[in-house]
Amino acid sequence: MNLPQTLGQLRQHHDFSEPRLTARRVKDEMRENLICKLRRKETLFPGIVGYDDTVVPQIVNAVLSRHNFILLGLRGQAKSRILRALASLLDAHTPYVAGCEIHDSPYAPICRRCRELVAEKGDDTPIAWLTPDNRYVEKLATPDVTIADLIGDIDPIKAAKGGHELSSEMTVHYGLLPRANRGIFAINELPDLAGKIQVGLFNIMQEGDVQIKGYPIRLPLDVALVFSANPEDYTARGKIITPLKDRIGSEIRTHYPATVEEGITITEQEAWAKRDGYQLHVPKYVREVIERIAFVAREDKKVDKRSGVSQRLPISALENVISNAERRAIVHGEGLVVPRMSDIYAALPAITGKLELEYEGEMKGADFVGRELIRTAIANSFDEYFHGANLQQVVQWFDLGGSIKVPDTAAAVEVLEELKAIQGLMDKLGAVGVNPKDAAELQVSAAEFLLEGLHAHKRIGRNEERVFTAGEKQARRPEVSAGHDREEPPFGRSRRGFN
C-alpha cells in the first residue's frame, strides 16, 4: 500500500467532503470502528473467554459513550489483555508529522515545532504513519512514578544543543502521556500511583489538556485513558483518590470463569501444551481436575478471597503436569504422554505459589492446603463420571487386604499388569471412555483416576508413598471376630507395586 509521504499528497489522497478524516478525535474513531465491527458481527476481543454477556457489553457501552474507563478485578482476570485489545478499534494507518514526539496531526499540529514546520514547508511537510500498536501506550503504576514521567519536564540538553532558553517550549521533554497523543494511554494497577501523581491526570481527563511543569503552555491532547486496578489495592497498598474516580466515566468489574468448561477453554488457550518429540493426550478428566483446583481454592476458607486465585494457577499446573508425564515417558521410552492424577500432585510447586493463605492455611502449610485442594477437585470430578456406578467390588478388594503402589515414575505397561489384579477395576473405565484395547498409558491414567476418586471419598486409603490400601474404617476392623476362626481373603493379600 502506497501511503502519502507529504502533506500535499495527503490532502489529495483524502476526500475533504468527509470532515471526519481530518477532525475526528481518537474516541470518535474508536466509536465508529466499534460500530462497524458490531454491524459485521465480528469478535471484538479474540481470546477473551467468558465475558461475552458480562464484561464485553459494558466495555462496548463505555466506548460508545466515549468514556475513559477502568477495569476493576482480581489478579489473573485478563484485564491487561483487554486493554491491549482496544488497539484493534483504531484505524489501520494514521498520519502524523514526521519526527514529532507527540504524533501531531498534520492538519492541526499542537506543538511549536510542528506548527513552525507546517508554516515553513506547507504541502512539502513530511508525513509518517502510525499503526494501532504504535498508538497504544501502557504504563505500570509504581510508587516511584513522577509527574515528569507522565507529563514531562525541562530538558537542559535540548536547550544547550538547540541554543534555546530554558523558558522555551522547544526545551520540553515530553512524558508518556503527551507521547500517547492521538492514541490510547493505559495505566495498570492505578492505586499504586501516588495520590499527588493521580492529581496530574485531572486536566487531561476533564479539560483535555496538560501543563508541563509550570510552563505557561497548554497541550490539548487527544487521548483515550483506560485503567486497571485490583479491589484489594484500595485498602492494601493505596487507593484511587476520589476526584480521579469521579472523572472516570465507567467502572467495569471483571471476574473469574463462571464454569469449569470456560476455565478449561482459557487454560487450553494459554498453556504450553503442544510440545515437540512426543505424542500427547491429556484426558478430559485430568483437565477438569486441574481446573477445579482453582474453583475449589476460590471457595476455600483457608485461601484469602480478597487476593483471589489467578487463572494462571491452572495454566501453570497443566504445564507442570504435562512435564512430569513427559519426564516419565522419556525415562521409560514411551511414545505416548498421558498425564495421571499423581502428576497433578507432582505439580504442587505450580499451585502453592499462586495461593495467598489465611491464618488457618498458614498454620497448616501451603503443601497441606494444596493437597487438600487437589483431593477435593478429584472428588468433584470423580462424581461427574462415576455417579451411580457400583464400585463395591473394587473397594472390597482393598477391604480384604489388597494393596498396590502406583508411583508417578512407574512405566505404564508394568503398572497396568498390577492394576489388572484388582477385580472389577478395569471394567469400570468405560465411564471415562477407556476400554481394554486402548494404550496402556490411557488405561493406567483412567484406573488411577478411579482409585484417587475412591481415596478422595475415603472409601479406600492411600499414604504419601502412593500405596493404596483399605480405608481407615476398614483398616481398624478386627481381622478375627469373636468365636470365629481367622480366614484368609481369597485374593489380593500381599502388597503389589514398585519401590
Précis, in short:
This protein has helices spanning 7-13, 20-23, 26-39, 55-64, 79-85, 112-121, 147-150, 156-162, 176-179, 195-198, 202-206, 233-236, 242-247, 260-270, 284-299, 312-332, 341-346, 349-352, 359-364, 366-386, 392-399, 412-419, 440-456, 472-475, and strands spanning 69-72, 94-97, 127-130, 136-140, 152-154, 172-174, 183-188, 223-229, 250-253, 279-280, 336-337, 403-405, 460-462, 467-470, 495-496.
- Give the tally of structural domains: 2
- Count every beta strand, where a strand is a DSSP E run of 2 or more residues: 15
- How would you characterize the largest beta sheet? 5 strands, parallel
Radius of gyration: 31 Å
Helix/strand/pairing class, anyone? alpha/beta
CATH classification, class level of the largest domain? Alpha Beta
- List the total number of helices: 24
CATH fold-level label of the largest domain: Rossmann fold
Uncertain runs are 16-21, 475-499
CATH homology superfamily of the largest domain = P-loop containing nucleotide triphosphate hydrolases
Strand content: 5-15%
- Can you list the strand order of the major beta sheet? 4-7-8-1-9
Rounded to the nearest angstrom, the distance between the terminal CA atoms is 68 Å
Averaging pLDDT over every residue, what do you get? 87
- Global morphology: elongated
Report the CATH architecture of the largest domain: 3-Layer(aba) Sandwich
Question: Share of helix among residues?
Answer: 40-55%
